[in-house]
TrEMBL record:
GO terms for molecular function: transmembrane transporter activity. This is Transporter, major facilitator family protein. The keyword Transport applies. Gene3D superfamilies: MFS general substrate transporter like domains.
Length: 442
């Protein structure tokens, strides 16, 4: 009788209550991350007035966290491949939760920037690790859709950030109370540590077969399947089944079999980070600079943020219909068109309308990107590869807030959003250099 690997058993299961619980646990962590990233855009606008910050100081307040994210994403991926997805996921939530809470006590820009850098370290490491963990547990037939749904929790976090930004931040010391809420992830990390299973693929790759068997048995039990026959068929002495190809044998993500896809993925990450963070971190401040009141600027941003949810929903549906590459490319192209329209908008109606379309397409693209990223690399390099792409992409998120003031001075919002549109288009074209893994085993 042919032997069945543990991962093969896991991939063929239906979506069970255990999957739902895992999606909820990782998704809440994801939403808390998004809340923190979203809050800084509102806090930047508030502190620009309260602390009389210059455009350069405001830019660095936005960029310093992304500098930490770039380092955190790269190191977090390496650590996840060595120590496991679950432990690193919990540790990153703890780090950035405590640092966010502490930043509420900052009495100067320098102190606030130090804490924002530490926040970035934890946040940057968490996102690729969480998507890798969820991808490795998901049923093969709906893996991409599940990861897009995970990414949709980002919209919930941003909506929460927009609500806090609109109703809390404008009050006296409101920005401090907003940051104090960030301590919640530190407490939530305890749930992550004790309530999340370790990746079966990771356990198998480390030879911890008995632990992997127990995890699979729990998921099979949730699906009301007997594990006895499967357990007898499982090969306890060999690595998990995998296609015999050059990518599985690659020594690193920069080896010849993986180099092209690594470069392509890094390019897509760079372009989407540049445009997303350049736009959405600055939109409240840009609206305020255009003469809108702080409250009205925040309200506009809240409305735009609500459009993220349908963007994720449509991407989640299409990703198993069209495939990863086509879905990602279409949403990136839509983002480019919306960016051009936003840059040319002047009335309240068209600013909100084009902003909603930008939010819809851009966040749908993010969902597809997080779905395809873990599928690009073999198991033993998956955390490293995804983390490296995210880390290099974060370089763009560091640059994005810094290039906004000079581009605005040079040509206004039209030129600024034309640059973002060009980056979206480059990412859309580069997407087709990535492998398509719809319906295929990792």
């Amino acid at each position: 009788m042919a032997k069945t690997s543990l991962t093969a058993r896991l991939e063929t299961l239906p979506f069970t209550k255990k999957h739902t619980k895992l999606l909820g646990v990782t998704g809440i962590g994801w939403a808390l991350d998004a809340m923190d990233v979203g809050l800084i855009s509102f806090i930047m606008a508030a502190l620009t007035k309260q602390w009389a910050l210059s455009p350069t100081e405001t830019s660095w307040l936005g960029s310093i966290g992304f500098l930490g994210m770039a380092l955190g994403a790269t190191v977090g991926g390496l650590l996840a491949d060595r120590f496991g997805r679950r432990y690193i996921f919990a540790a990153t939530l703890l780090i950035y939760g405590l640092a966010t809470g502490a930043s509420a006590l900052a009495g100067s820009l320098a102190v606030l920037m130090v804490f924002r850098f530490i926040v970035g370290l934890g946040l940057g490491a968490e996102l690729p690790v969480a998507s890798t963990l969820m991808s490795e547990f998901s049923p093969r037939a709906i893996r991409g859709r599940v990861v897009v749904i995970l990414e949709a929790f980002w919209a919930l976090g941003w909506i929460l950030a927009a609500l806090i930004g609109t109703f809390v931040v404008p009050n006296p010391n409101g920005w401090r109370w907003a940051l104090a809420i960030g301590v919640i992830p530190a407490l939530y990390s305890l749930i992550i540590r004790w309530g999340t299973p370790e990746s079966v693929r990771f356990l198998e790759s480390k030879g911890r077969i008995d632990e992997a068997e127990r995890v699979v048995a729990e998921f099979e039990s949730s699906a009301a399947l007997s594990t006895r026959t499967h357990a007898n068929e499982t090969n306890r002495d060999n690595a998990p089944e995998a296609p015999a190809n050059d990518t599985q044998e690659a020594a690193s993500i920069w080896s010849a079999p993986l180099r092209k896809r690594t470069l392509a993925l890094c390019t897509v990450w760079f372009c989407i980070n540049l445009s997303y963070y350049g736009a959405f971190i600055w939109i409240p401040s840009l609206l305020s600079a255009q003469g809108f009141s702080l409250v009205k600027s925040f309200a506009f941003t809240l409305i735009m943020t609500l459009a993220q949810l349908p963007g994720y929903a449509v991407a989640a549906y299409l990703i198993e219909k069209w495939g990863r590459r086509a879905t990602l490319a279409v949403f990136l192209a839509g983002s480019a068109g919306a960016a051009v329209c936003y840059g040319l908008s002047h009335s309240d109606f068209f600013i909100i309308l084009s902003g909603c379309f930008l939010s819809f397409f851009n966040l749908g693209a993010w969902g597809a990107l997080y779905a395809i990223s873990p599928e690009v690399f073999p198991t033993r390099l998956r955390g490293t590869g995804t983390g490296t792409a995210a880390g290099l992409g974060r370089i763009a998120s560091i640059l994005a807030p810094l290039i906004v003031p000079p581009l605005i001075s040079f040509g206004g919002t039209g030129v600024l959003f034309a640059v973002f549109a060009a980056a979206f288009l480059l990412a859309a074209v580069t997407t087709f250099a990535l492998p398509e893994k719809r319906g295929k085993s990792l």
